[in-house]
Amino acid sequence: MRLYEAPPLPPFSEEKCTNELDRILKSSPKVAILLKGIQTLNKDALRRGITCRPCMGTNQETRMGYYDARYKRVVLCCDHLRSKKEIEDTLVHELTHAFDSLRKGKFKSICHLIACGEIRASALGQCETIEDPYKKKQCIWTDAVRSTEIHCGTEQAEKVVKEVFENCVHDETPFK
Ligand SMILES: [Zn+2]
Fold first, then answer.
1. Which residues form a coiled coil (predicted)?
2. Cα(48) to centroid(ligand 1), Å
């Protein structure tokens, strides 16, 4: 016998991603709260808006999305997104980065700042709906280390994520 395996979902086209994004922008309470928070701090932070586009072949091709502070926009990598939930989770993650880029905070180093932002973005974004507390912590921890090590190296990333974890994971601004 041969076990049936459902094929993985195909990635979204730019058009399908944009249509889902429109729906999420109109209906997601989390996205609305983040956008309002960003607007309150600085109306310019998302001057170029939120767009879906393919990232393969660019220097962002390992990502599902990113906030571009220089160009003031969020990009969703449609060729790495396969469901409405992935789009919404990624959008919440990147909007958290946009929001954090406008906040003032004191950190020991740039790596501490990056680690804290990644912990928050993962806790509020793609890891938020995991119910099991242990698995949820694993999700946040792993994703934060992976994103921080790009800038700070693995050893330093593990160390600073550990140092800031408790404080940052409980910081749910602008939700609470
Ligand atoms: Zn991130």
1. none
2. 19
